[in-house]
Design goal:
This protein has about 240 residues and is α/β, with parallel strands linked by helices. It is built from eight helices and ten strands. Helix 3 packs parallel to helix 4 and helix 5 crosses helix 6.
């Protein structure tokens, strides 16, 4: 079997998505809720179930938990930072393989104090800095900050709406960090983009592989009757595209 040139991370919102990602050969999942909002912290029950599913499959490092207390940007007050820390600690206690976080200060730069606290709270878990990175004016300098603080990887589209459109920035970032920080391309990734992204030198690709289906009528108080599931064909094709 050909060697993999990059890891594949799938953003999932339920245990069924974890099972699909495991079955189709993904390297890990980002477990989250509310993907249409860019992702929010999943429930404690979902974290526990997802970790149990991965552990039973012999993949104890498979579940990486997004910890984001709300939508609406990445500048957090003291209460929100404490909530984030509590959720990081819960993910660690639950046996997750990593956490995905981000925080900015009022000047729009990486909140060094917050990220240092997150790294400490995560302990030996991998810590990924999420797409708050794509709001930063100087991503290469920001990458040096993340290396200094102890992050394992950064999730970025290269500052573009879609990763393939930010490919030159991704290439430059991967060359700059030189393996000191994993660069994961994420943001509108399609299977056909993956060979070019991996050729640019990224360490991983991140996609949701979502398919929208119709549920039972939810009435005036239940929101849209449609919801997303993880498409096994899309995951399988994404994995194949990295070989």
């Amino acid at each position: 079997m050909p060697l993999r040139s990059a890891a594949v991370e799938i953003a999932v919102q339920d245990v069924a998505g974890v099972r699909v990602a495991l079955a189709e050969g993904a390297d890990r999942v980002e477990l989250c809720a509310a993907l249409p909002l860019g992702g929010l912290t999943p429930s404690a029950g979902l974290v526990a179930q997802a970790v149990e599913e991965a552990t039973e499959a012999g993949r104890s490092d498979f579940v990486h938990v997004l910890v984001r207390p709300r939508g609406g940007g990445f500048v957090y007050d003291a209460d929100e930072l404490e909530t984030t820390l509590a959720d990081i600690r819960f993910a660690r206690q639950s046996g997750a393989g990593g956490v995905v976080v981000g925080a900015l200060d009022e000047a729009g730069q990486i909140d060094r104090e917050a990220i240092a606290r997150f790294v400490e709270g995560a302990g030996d878990l991998d810590l990924t800095f999420h797409r708050a990175f794509d709001t930063l004016a100087d991503p290469e300098a920001a990458a040096e900050v993340l290396i200094e603080l102890g992050a394992a990887r950064v999730l970025t589209s290269g500052g573009a709406a879609r990763s393939i459109d930010g490919i030159e920035a991704l290439r430059a970032l991967a060359q700059r960090v030189g393996g000191r920080l994993q660069v994961m391309a994420g943001g509108g990734v399609r299977v056909r983009d993956i060979p070019a992204l991996t050729a640019a030198g990224v360490d991983a690709v991140h996609l949701s592989a979502r398919q929208t289906v119709s549920g039972a009528p939810s009435g005036p108080g239940g929101g849209d009757a449609r919801y997303d599931i993880t498409d096994p064909v899309a995951v399988r094709e994404a994995v194949a595209a990295t070989r």
